[in-house]
Design goal:
The protein is of the alpha+beta class. It folds into four domains: 2-8 and 538-601, Dna Ligase, domain 1 (2-Layer Sandwich), CATH 3.30.1490.440; 33-220, Heat Shock Protein 90; 226-386, Ribosomal Protein S5, domain 2, CATH 3.30.230; 408-537 and 602-642, Rossmann fold (3-Layer(aba) Sandwich). Helices cover 38% and strands 19% of the residues. It has 20 helices and 23 strands. The strands form four sheets. Strands 2, 3, 4, 5, 6, 7, 8, 9 and 10 form a nine-stranded mixed β-sheet that branches. Helix 6 crosses helix 7 and helix 12 (431-441) packs across helix 18 (586-594). The longest helix has 38 residues, at 370-407. The chain starts with a strand and ends in an 11-residue tail after the last helix. Mean pLDDT is 84; it is low at 1-8, 10-18, 107-123, 399-407 and 640-645.
């Protein structure tokens, strides 16, 4: 148990203030998320977003991203207007230096004519990249000259220099991420290329080039086909037949530009990608909500107009969107993103705007294309029938065999009393100790617990027969009730949620990975149908008097401690790190991980079957070479205190 040190004396001299970009370096997670691989690459996207803003506002039509031979340096170059370099009239320093060294500065905060549309409205992108870079060099071409200035860890290393005459225009930013901030500073060429490829589809008039000096490649990622070409690629990657041969496509110009395309497939999953001002919103938001609502209302209006009814079946929104592959891209003047990483749009007015565009347009298209409309509606009706049949079959199985099936369940399974699949959960827990805490802390009416004992078999590359010789995995299959392989029947599933609950350490992550491999290879339908989850237990407990605060990781712990000491300067928080779930009292485990009202769960999904297959094959397959490369590339991510020796 560790105790956070509190200041013995609290007066005026105790108050400090982080100046300039010190706040960014002190708390990088507030600006880029965790300083991991995702956070590292977020630096690239921040600079690229600025270049895209130039294109969106009619200045420049080309962006080149160069991954340098060292692998830990990137240059982003555009042919936009170039960042202003003159002396700022108010702050009396070169404007370039102001933008790169001060938060919340930029053209989006000045006169409103500078940027009509923009993805970077917080004014912290370039300065954050500068703050988190060991070295950054800005090269500007504008007004007939070329200028350059170098920065180190957010501070000017020299003065702005006029290099000489140059008739071109644009901005070039070279940066090297700071190893003091990032555990790994080596960029992933495939990540960069894939993201740039997506951007090229969204901005089909923008020429994007990716130069990989490591391989010597220079790749043109321009996609003049735009969203329809993008949709065609996504459907092809899904490897499922399309229902409507011709996708729906619509575009609306104006203050709020909306462009979308969609196609129904035979897949059981719904896949929608959404973008705002060219930025991927992976968590959706109000524009995605407007799209989904507009689709459902258009389909329902069409079915009502043409008197399409199915006796005894109510068509749900999920039935309508099952198998849908869609892309929506909007461009608005003042996007309100959730957080600096811009993964969700929060503008409330956008829902009605998008829905108002989608609903009448899609409904008119359906009426004008009756053959495809019949195919789409037929697919929706089949989805509804399958859902109803699945529910009825599951209920019948439970009525007839709930008792007999319970007699054959694994002895170590602590089953729940309820038999309704939609209400029940199975926690697959690491070890008897954690299993004991989970059994005592659970709601035994709806929550079942199955402890795993010993080492879990790596099922990658093994035959199903071989996998089922492993008792622990065979017990999982028996507990779920679905069978496996050709005998798999999801209608026999005994729990609505299957939750992997492992320790928040390296061993726990390893077991989770092995279980994910098993489900992906042997029971993928459970993932596709959304039944598999990963629990996110806390790693730390922070006690302040009788109060307890729970931290999911080190960064969260530091943020909570700072918040606690800010509000209660004289507090003496006690920090406890859990070595395993078995150390938690049953009540604590219930409060943090079991109680549906308080816990955090992560649903397991498959965004790309091809990429998932590749990942499992490379990291868990029989060929050790790929694992060796991964281990060597990732070795310096592991800190000494994380190792169990």
């Amino acid at each position: 148990m560790a105790t956070a040190t509190a200041t013995k004396k609290y007066d005026e001299a105790s108050i400090g203030m982080l100046e300039g970009l010190e706040a960014v370096r002190h708390r990088p997670s507030m600006y880029i998320g965790a300083p991991d691989k995702k956070g590292l690459h977020h630096l690239v996207w921040e600079i690229v977003d600025n270049s895209i803003d130039e294109y969106l506002n009619g200045f420049g039509d080309a962006i080149t991203v160069t991954l340098h031979k060292s692998g830990d340096a990137v240059t982003v170059t555009d042919n936009g207007r170039g960042i202003p370099v003159g002396m700022h009239p108010k702050y009396k320093i070169p404007t370039l230096e102001l933008i790169l060294t001060k938060l919340h500065t930029g053209g989006k905060f000045g006169d409103n004519d500078s940027y009509f549309r923009s993805g970077g409205l917080h004014g912290v992108g370039s300065s954050v990249v500068n703050a988190l870079s060991k070295k950054l060099v800005a090269t500007i071409k504008r007004d007939g000259y070329e200028w350059t200035q170098t920065f180190k860890r957010g501070k000017p290393a020299d003065k702005l220099e006029k290099v000489g005459p140059n008739r071109l225009h644009g901005t070039s930013i070279y940066f090297e991420p700071d190893p003091e901030i990032f555990r790994v500073t080596h960029f992933d060429a495939d990540w960069i290329r894939t993201r740039l490829d997506d951007i090229a589809y969204i901005h089909h008039g923008l020429k994007i080039t990716f130069r990989n000096e490591i391989t010597g490649e220079s790749i043109d990622l321009t996609h003049p086909g735009g969203l329809p070409e993008f949709l065609q690629r996504l459907v092809a990657e899904a490897q499922v037949p399309a229902v409507n041969a011709t996708p729906y496509y619509a575009i609306k110009e104006g203050d709020e530009k909306i462009e979308l395309t969609m196609q129904w497939t035979e897949s059981t999953d719904e896949s929608i990608r959404s973008y705002v001002n060219g930025i991927r919103t992976t968590d959706g938001g109000t524009h995605e909500a407007g799209l989904k609502s507009g689709i459902v209302k258009a389909i329902r209006n069409f079915m009502e107009t043409h008197d399409v009814k199915v006796k005894g079946i109510e068509i749900t929104a999920n039935d309508i969107r099952e198998g849908l592959v869609g892309i929506v891209s909007i461009f608005i003047r003042d996007p309100a993103f959730q957080g600096q990483t811009k993964e969700k749009l929060n503008n409330p007015e956008i829902t009605a705007i998008v829905e108002g565009f989608v609903r009448p347009g899609l409904e008119s298209w359906l009426n004008a294309n009756m053959t495809m409309a019949d195919q789409i509606v037929g697919r929706i009706v089949l989805a509804a029938k399958a859902r109803l049949a699945s529910r009825e079959a599951a209920q019948e199985v439970k009525r007839k065999s709930a008792t007999s099936r319970r007699l054959n369940l694994p002895g170590k399974l602590a089953d729940c009393k309820a038999t309704d699949v939609e209400d029940t959960e199975l926690f697959i827990v690491e070890g008897d100790s954690a299993g004991g805490s989970a059994k005592q802390g659970r709601n035994n009416r709806t929550q079942a617990v199955l402890p795993l004992r010993g080492k879990i078999m790596n099922s990658e590359g093994l035959t199903l027969a071989k996998v089922m010789t492993h008792q622990e995995l065979a017990d999982v299959v028996t507990a779920l009730g679905t069978g496996v392989g050709e005998s798999f029947n999801i209608n026999n599933l005994r729990y609505g949620k299957i939750i992997l609950l492992m320790d928040a350490d390296a061993d726990g992550h390893h077991i989770t990975t092995l279980m994910l491999t098993f489900f992906f290879r042997c029971m993928p339908e459970l993932i596709r149908k959304g039944h598999l989850y990963i629990a996110l237990p806390p790693l730390y407990c922070i006690g302040v008097g009788k109060e307890k605060f729970w931290a999911k990781d080190d960064a969260h712990k530091e943020e909570l401690l700072e918040e606690i000491l800010t509000k209660r300067p004289n507090a003496k928080p006690e920090v406890t790190r859990f070595k395993g779930l078995g150390e938690m009292m049953p009540g604590e485990l219930n409060e943090t991980t079991l109680d549906p009202k308080k816990r955090a769960l992560m649903r397991v999904t498959i965004e790309s079957i091809i990429e998932a297959d590749k990942t499992f094959t490379e990291l868990l397959g029989k060929d050790p070479a790929t694992r060796y490369r991964f281990i060597m590339d990732s070795a310096n991510q592991v800190e000494a205190e994380e190792l169990d020796v």
